[in-house]
Fold this sequence. Notes:
Blueprint: H1 2-10, H2 13-19, H3 24-53, H4 62-85, H5 90-108, H6 119-124
Helix pairs in contact: 1-4, 3-4, 4-5
Amino acid sequence: xxxxxxxxxxxxxxxxxxxxxxxxxxxxxxxxxxxxxxxxxxxxxxxxxxxxxxxxxxxxxxxxxxxxxxxxxxxxxxxxxxxxxxxxxxxxxxxxxxxxxxxxxxxxxxxxxxxxxxxxxxxxx
Length: 125
């Protein structure tokens, strides 16, 4: 989502959308909806693959998983929008996006395997 909004801003599409009859809520709502659909599809695919490859169990507490998923998706979407929109320079936005991606990878557990990390990295977590 932030990549699209940043590209829209650089190409002045946002100004054209603002001049048209489209509301800001409809543009942001559609972007958030697309982010949710992509996140849901990715999560379902990841869950199915982990159940097949690693013989893991399906989530047991759906009543807690669903609100946590929604909250997490909203948080990372808002961080992405912030990273893509807070600066005028393209290089600074790229650095901000990289920082958000690294944070998302770390909190999502998509880091290197423990065997490849040093003792200090394993101790930190």
